[in-house]
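Review form for a predicted model. The reviewer records the input and the model, then writes brief findings.
Reviewer: anonymous (R2)
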Amino acid sequence: MKSSKGRIWEIDAIRGFLILCVIASHTLFYLSNVLGRFSLPPLVRFVMQYGGMLFVLLSGLSATLGSRAPRRGLMVLAGGMLLTLGSYAGVLLGWLGEDMIIRFGVLHLLGVAMLLYPLLKKLPGPVLLALGLGVIALGYWLELGEITVEARFLFPLGLRYPGFSSGDYFPLAPHLGWFCLGIVLGRGLYPEKKTRLPRVNAETPVLRFFRWCGRNSLYIFILHLPLVGLIMMLL
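Model under review:
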């Protein structure tokens, strides 16, 4: 079955679980800095290293299930710009260091990717798969090789200038590649845009909570950063 308003319930539930994991990992990471560094649990380290990639992959999959990706992309990109302005304000007020300015974070990446989706969806599956793998390989080559350029406006592409920093950084290379792979995955898993788990009761309290978090993940992500930051400041 589908969840309310035609949404596929397991996609919302997985997205909700991921956003809660991200919040937990951010909170524990900041606590380790404020209260003295301590060893983070393996699950937290996994989420911090791979949670963003899974989120982008799921977003690509979700784009194949809806019809308003550009509109959603504008909303997500606006949320990213709001976080950028908020981080700049934090620096001006002396609450944050300049290295915490969010110049091109996960919301910027997802917003641009969703705006590009009308073009990406026209590509055949094999071409999209090759494009995704190529962008991923290019991105990690740039990162591992510590490639820098003098131009200061190419960082959204993954081309950083000397001294570049960003509190949250998800450049198009490699992460647009994960979005492309998510599109391929969505086409394969949900060709009819129907749940793959029709016999599971999606109305249990836990799944309903995860689904709610997944449907509201954009707002939860935006709000959790200042709230966690405020708590850390009070501590």
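Findings: Confidence is low (pLDDT under 50) at residues 1-5.
Further findings: Residues 4-234 form one domain.
Recommendation: see findings above.
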